[in-house]
Amino acid sequence: MKYALSLALALSLVFSSASAQQTPKGKLFIIGGGSRSNDLIKKLVETADLKSKDYVVVLPMASELPVESFQGIASQINQVVPNKVTSFNFSKATISNKKWVDSLRNARLIYIAGGSQDRFMDVVRNTPVYEAIHSAYRTGATVAGTSAGAAVMSKVMITGQQLAGDTTYKETFDKLWDKNIEFKEGLGLVDSVIIDQHFLKRSRHNRLISALAAYPDYTCIGIDESTAIIVRGKNIEVTGESQVMTLSEPKDLKINSKGLIQMQNLRFGLYADGEKFLIR
Q1: Which end of the chain is more exposed for a tag (fewer CB within 10 A), N or C?
Q2: Are the CB atoms for 219 and 192 separated by under 8 Å?
Q3: pLDDT for 252-271, tens place per residue?
Q4: In this structure, are strands 27-31 and 142-146 parallel, antiparallel, or unpaired?
């Protein structure tokens, strides 16, 4: 039932599968968007385990306001720790800047700002920056992201666009049709998972069910605003003010003659701060 993948995404799946054989030493801190409380930032810093000489790199390429995005998160982090926080706003012209790429590779905490996941991946896909993020994660860095920065974490990335009927962008899908959800290649830092963000705030249940119908062997995770998941291998911990929803293992999944998604049952989970679960 999976949709046809682009050549770039297919190649990324091969690369990610090879990388997955080496368990990353790093962690992921995936925020569902919205406001970031002081407690959430403290948890982020604690997860990254920053030492005095460690530094943070912010990647604001998803944002239409990259300077403001950088300043916001840098200010919050520096209220908790004094470590250096810098921004690399990579573009097509600077994507191979060796000094920037090497600094990114050696960062202890990488933070991907919100905005448009498409905009971010259009800059990063198949570049030295993509490789540097993976290298940092494999060797122990924490990679964090919010909103669009959350969506890019998986290798199969939701763009937010509907493909059937009225394709005008809507925050909430208004139908459960086959082949109605667009996917593109994400970073592939987490395998067999699809991430959605602003989840409860924007009632994105239909979007996540559509993703599950397209990838029934995956775990689909909806993260609400002001909330995050911490990924350590296959172990997930929830932190923050709201909840995280998981959908997986649909039973009797089929598409009727009108293109409507049908299933008899699925595995559902709803988690709050401090709770843990496993992904396949």
Answers
A1: C
A2: yes
A3: 999 999 999 999 999 999 99
A4: parallel
